[in-house]
Amino acid sequence: MQHTKNLMKQTYFMQRELINKNSPVQMVLTQWPFLTEAEFLLSHFGKLLEKDHIEHLPSTIAHRSMEVYRSLKLNARPSVETVLKSIKHQCSQFENNDAKSSEVVSLLAAFFKEEGKTILKCFKDEYQLSTIIEENETTPYVIAIGDMPAIAKHFKVIVEKNIVTSCSDLFLALSCCIATYFIFNIEYPKSALATLEFMQRYFVEINAPGSKTSKKRKSCGIHPKVLQLSNIMQAYKQ
Predict the structure, then answer these.
(1) How far is CA 54 from the centre of its chain?
(2) CA–CA separation, 229 vs 238, rounded Å?
(3) What digits encode the pLDDT tens for the residues 178-206?
(4) How far apart are alpha carbons 162 and 130 in whole angstroms?
(5) What pLDDT shows up at residue 214?
(6) Average pLDDT of the residues in 142-165
(7) CB–CB of 209/197 below 8 Å?
């Protein structure tokens, strides 16, 4: 394993060269198959951002997802009430608090009035998975195998209709999903623009103007709704 780690580090610039030629994701994964493993995918992401300890990103997202829940519960708005009720029901049904963090995508999307399913989709089983992937968008998203994220046991990160990586942890899957936008130079889809920008800024602490948004959005700086929620979160911490 250490040999593979060293090899991936030594060939990082070769990987970037291929990716920056706008090569299809499938071609990149064929030439660099270890990028289909979450550990190496996140390592590449950390190198790209020049961020140390990127392996802690899943636990950071889990912790900050709970902060999002608590903040929006205290500052409940009509747009998030339905999701908050669903979370309360799940906590009662499963006798744990997992839904308070695992429903973070739905909660953020509801706040921004966007489509959470652009980022995270739940399916009861893997039956006809290839058909599901083929029928959905090409931008990165996570498939959770289960009725809801809190009880799902398997997650798959999909990019350009390819399974990039599979794992058993929601927050690792979300980390990899965010990473793929940056690794493969993909713009955020309009249907989840503010949600992804907030996740980028609050979870990964990438605060470059606009970042993976369109060129038009980049010139405008931070999304006003993202700034609004950031202020709510700041008030919650005080």
Answers:
(1) 14
(2) 15
(3) 999 999 999 999 999 999 999 999 999 99
(4) 9
(5) 55
(6) 96
(7) no
C-alpha distance across the termini of the chain, in Å: 44
- Residues counted in the chain: 238
**What integer pLDDT is reported at residue 217 of this predicted model?**
47
Q: Compute the mean pLDDT over every residue in the chain, rounded to the nearest whole number.
A: 92
Residue 215's DSSP bridge partners are: none
Question: Which two three-digit tokens encode residue 184?
Answer: 């493969």
CA 217-223-229 angle, to 5 degrees, is 165
- Residues 42 and 78: beta-carbon distance below 8 Å: no
Among 78, 158, 65, residue whose Cα is nearest residue 113: 78
Cα–Cα distance for residue pair 83/123, rounded to 1 Å = 18
Q: Would you state the torsion angle of the CA atoms of residues 104, 107, 112, 114, taken in this order, to the nearest 10 degrees? A: 90
Q: What is the pLDDT of residues 99-116, one digit of tens each?
A: 999 999 999 999 999 999
Q: Is beta strand 141-145 parallel, antiparallel or unpaired with respect to 120-123?
A: parallel
Amino acid of residue 14: M
User: CA-CA distances (angstroms) from residue 15 to 19, 38, 48, 65?
Assistant: 6, 16, 11, 32
Q: CA 76 → CA 68, 81, 145, distances in Å?
A: 11, 7, 29
Do the beta carbons of residue 207 and residue 201 sit within 8 Å?
Answer: yes
SS3 209: coil
- The 3-class secondary structure across 121-168, one letter per residue, is EEECCCCCHHHHHHHCCCCCEEEEECCCHHHCCEEEEEECCEEEEEEC
Answer for the pair 149, 102: CB distance below 8 angstroms, yes or no. Answer: yes
